[in-house]
UniProtKB/TrEMBL annotation:
Gene3D superfamilies: Glutaredoxin (3.40.30.10). Coiled coil: none annotated. InterPro entries: Arsenate_reductase-like, Thioredoxin-like_sf, Tscrpt_reg_Spx/MgsR. Belongs to the ArsC family. This is Arsenate reductase. It holds the Pfam family ArsC. PANTHER family: ARSENATE REDUCTASE (PTHR30041), PROTEIN YFFB (PTHR30041:SF8).
Length: 115
């Protein structure tokens, strides 16, 4: 299991804490330090939809120019923006055996998936 995110993100902290308290010991991938690939973003977009992977409610998105925001109309353009602004990725993303299974943190959803 790999949890992708940023260590100081409250949602990532909640997800990691929940996983650890429930007996999981996931690897953590800090995509601010380790980066993220277009291939990985495409897999997440295929699994969840690009609109779910791109966090339009976050500060990073809101700070982007309106020109950049309006440019994002599909998966390809969303990934281009996310590669340049990886803090705009919805987080955390949890993968098991290399497959993306969860995005964000919802305790009820985690209970269903991991119990």
């Amino acid at each position: 299991m790999i949890v992708y995110g940023i260590p100081n993100c409250n949602t990532v902290k909640k997800a990691r804490t929940w996983l650890e308290e429930n007996g999981f010991n996931p690897e953590f991938h800090d995509f601010k330090k380790k980066g993220i690939t277009a291939e990985k973003l495409n897999a997440w977009c295929d699994a969840f939809g690009w609109e779910a992977v791109l966090n339009k409610k976050g500060t990073t998105w809101k700070k982007l120019s309106s020109d950049v925001q309006q440019m994002v109309t599909d998966q390809k353009t969303a990934i281009e923006v996310l590669l340049q602004n990886n803090s705009a990725i919805k987080r955390p993303v949890v993968e098991v055996d290399g497959k993306p299974i969860l995005i964000s943190f919802n305790e009820d959803q985690y209970k269903v998936v991991f119990k």
